[in-house]
Each structure stands twice: as C-alpha cells, then as structure tokens.
Amino acid sequence: MTTIIKNGTIVTADLTYKADVKIDGGLIIEIGPDLSGATVLDATGCYVMPGGIDPHVHLEMPFMGTYSADDFESGTRAALSGGTTMVVDFCLPEPGQSLLDALNRWDNKATRATSDYAFHMAVTWWGEQVFNEMKTIVQDKGINSFKHFMAYKGALMVNDDEMFASFSRCAELGALPMVHAENGDIVAQMQAKLLAEGNNGPEAHAYSRPASVEGEATNRAIIIADMAGAPLYVVHTSCEQAHEAIRRARQNGMRVYGEPLIQHLILDESEYANLDWVHAARRVMSPPFRNKQHQDSLWAGLAAGSLQCVATDHCAFTTEQKRNGIDDFTKIPNGTGGLEDRLPLLWTHGVVTGRLTMNEFVAVTSTNIAKILNLYPKKGAILVGSDADIVVWDPKLEKTITAKNQQSAIDYNVFEGQTVRGLPRFTVSRGVVAIEEGTVKTREGHGRFVARDPYPAVSKALSTWKELVAPRKVERTGIPASGV
Ligand code: URP
Ligand code: ZN
Ligand code: ZN
Ligand code: ZN
C-alpha cells in the first residue's frame, strides 16, 4: 500500500522545491514529479517537511516527589498533533541504581508511545558500576548520549570530578555528554536565603537562579568537556551568558551545541510577577524565563548558527501538583509543557516574522538534532530511504492555543490565548497518518525505540584531533651534569 504526498513544496534544511513523495513500508521510496499510488494526501499549498524531533522531553518522570503528568501515550499524541514525530526522553537512574535497571523501567513506560522515541541516559551518581554500564548502554542498548545535572543538589546533581570522569568515559565510547547547566551549590544557597527572608512565592524561584549562575555552569561544563576531549550538548540554554559561553567555545573550535526552548523564546520573566499564585507557579521551570534581551540573544543564535536546536523540555505538572509548593517555592515541581505547540509557535514567531527562514526552521526543529544524535538521515530528512516521518504543513491554518483543546493531560497551557499561524494538515509517523486536518488518529504502541550508534562524525574528528594534540613527553638527548 503506497501513499503519495502530492502537490506540495518540499522544505528541508537546505532545499525548497516542488515534488511529490512516495511512501511504502514506513519509508520514503521515491521523490519526484507526478507520482501516483493507492492513497493520496493532498499537500496543495503546503510545505512537506521532516517531522519535528524534540530532543528534550520528560514523560512520566519521577521528580520532586511526584510524576510528570503526560505519559508516553499522551505526550507523543501531543507531539504528533503539533507536527513532532519523534521525542527523546531522559532515563534517570536513582542514586546507586544500575543504569540497566533504570532503562528497563523506561523501556516499559515507552511501550505506549504513539510516535518513535529514543533515550538519553542520565549519570546521576558515579562509581565503577556506572563506568562499566556506560559501555553496555552505548554498545548494546542504542543510547549514545549521557545527561548530567549540575543543579538539583541532593537529588540529581553531580559534581565536577564526577562530570570529568563521565565526560572522559563518553569520549572513549564515542558518546555525547549533555548538561543541565546551573550552579546547583549557589542555587541551593540562594533558595535557603530567600526562604529565610520570607520570600516564598514563585517569583523567588527566578530570583534563586539568575542568568549568571547558568552562564558560569555552562562555561564550566565547556571547559570540563574540552579537558575530557568530548563534545558537549547544553540543554535549555536560556540566557545570553550561557549563549556567549557556547558561542565563544565554538569560535575556539570546540564542539559545543546549545538548545533553547520554545518557552524561553516566547515567554518572559514578567510571568512570575503575576498576582495570581497559580499563574506564576504553573510557569516555574529551570532555568526560569528571562527578559527580552536574553530572548533576542537566543533568536539571534538560532539565525547565526551558534545555537542549534529548539526543544520543549516538556515536563508537565497539573495545577494540583504545582500546589505542593504553595508555602515554599522550592517545592513547586519544576517544569512546563510545550510538545504540541513547539512547531506552530516557532513558525509563527520565527518564520512569519522573518527571524528564521523555512530551511532554518527545519534545521532547528529536526535536522540539526538528527545529525548531532547520529540519527541522520533515518530521521530529520526527506530523502529516499529515510523514515516517512513527515509533516505536511499548512501555513494558512490558524488556531488560538487553549488547554480546552490540547492533547496534554494537564489542565492549563502556558501559551493559553496565543494565536498561531501554520499547523500540520497531516502528520505522518513512519508512513502512517497520525493527524489529519485536526483529527487525531494516533495509535497507542505504534512508536518504536530508535537505536543510535556511537561515534557520529564529530566525535570521530574530535578524538583524532585530541590524540594529535595530546601532551607528549619531550624526549631529551642528554641529561646535563649537575651544576651546569
Ligand atoms: O524545570 C525543568 N526544566 N524540569 C524538568 C527537569 C529539567 O531540569 O530538565
Ligand atoms: Zn534541566
Ligand atoms: Zn493566569
Ligand atoms: Zn529537562
């Protein structure tokens, strides 16, 4: 049974051209003019783009005494509704827990996924067992990226010596270290000080995690990665200080990537000043929203190529869950949603305004991360042989975002009331239509785990270079006599 996407304009990270796309067996099998087949999806007036890949989501995540409310079914359903055809979640071992045991748990949760998915593994503690299991994770389990939390002291946080050990192991294995970059020691001190002063509302969450604290940690992680000979991926880059560190590192030849979130691009710190506690608490996430100057820096970074991917860090908590921190902002579960809204919002605020080209849009929502995570061209491409993960994007469709109509399980939407222009006419997941003109046709369990090989080209090049410039003992020809 072949499917043809007909009469559309293909938009990839580097090309825009008119052609039809033929799909069979979940793959793209032909691209060209005037193709025919059993089922036709009419793409007249639409752009045919690689489906979005969200490299940063937390579905059913155990965190701050509760679980994030969207599981792999509702989370991936939300993703597909908004044109995202693959998500990458974080497997989080508890301190002392085997990485393989934790992965077992995540494998079980993910069987409900409606879109394809992959995992990053988190390094939340360090020891010989972690060192050994990292090899199994990379070589047998199809995971080539390891996340390190520099914040959440007393829970997920790891220290510099642990990061250096883990990053070095990543370099040996051809894997990519990732960081949540905030100085967790300073944040913990700031939280205690603010609470002691009676500053217990959600606005204090933002006061406790200023941009400088993120900039410092980003810079530190970059130096640790450079010393370890590893590339580095910095998640949820939210401010100029972190962007500046990434920009500077890249200009110095380091292989460092930065990931702004759609939330940080669109929403600003004034949300925390809202007189309604619930409004502000719903927007508590780490790092917190910043001001306009930081937002402009992130947009510029996407256009300039100093920042590579736009993610969501989708980690949705209900209002009831947010109420855990009613008297103490440090107990408000950190996280916001965005999976359904990432592409429409980025199109509206990026492409429609002229901040991004359509090709840059595809690059930062799909192709760049596919390359970074060694998924390309299976994902992130419209090429013969690629998975048929495709969004048929209608630039004329409009909607006003509202929790009433969303797929996410939570009872609000941080983008409530925003009108977006540009939405999927069809979202196709491995050849199967999952969304058709607003009708949800997702199938629980359709999603498959996507294994990723180690040693993407950048890791190979970096290890070759690091070997070439490694310190070498100076072989001297003679030892001078004493006293000379
Ligand atoms: O506030 C956030 N970002 N929650 C999810 C966990 C994380 O730090 O990514
Ligand atoms: Zn984080
Ligand atoms: Zn409100
Ligand atoms: Zn996250």
UniProtKB/TrEMBL annotation:
InterPro entries: Amidohydro-rel, Hydantoinase/dihydroPyrase, Metal-dep_hydrolase_composite, Metal_Hydrolase, Metallo-dep_Hydrolases_sf. GO terms for cellular component: cytosol. Its EC number is 3.5.2.2. It comes from the Bacteria. Signal peptide: none annotated. One of its GO terms (biological process) is pyrimidine-containing compound metabolic process. The modification N6-carboxylysine is found at residue 147. GO terms for molecular function: dihydropyrimidinase activity; metal ion binding. The keyword Metal-binding applies. It is an enzyme of class 3 (hydrolase). Residues 47-420 form the Amidohydrolase-related domain. Keywords: Hydrolase, Metal-binding, Zinc. Its cofactor is Zn(2+). The keyword Metal-binding applies. CDD domains: D-HYD. It catalyses: 5,6-dihydrouracil + H2O = 3-(carbamoylamino)propanoate + H(+). Carbamylation allows a single lysine to coordinate two divalent metal cations. Pfam families: Amidohydro_1. Transmembrane segments: none annotated. Homotetramer. Catalyzes the hydrolysis of dihydropyrimidines and of the structurally related DL-5-mono-substituted hydantoins, to produce N-carbamoyl-D-amino acids. NCBIfam families: D-hydantoinase. Belongs to the metallo-dependent hydrolases superfamily. Hydantoinase/dihydropyrimidinase family. This is D-hydantoinase/dihydropyrimidinase.
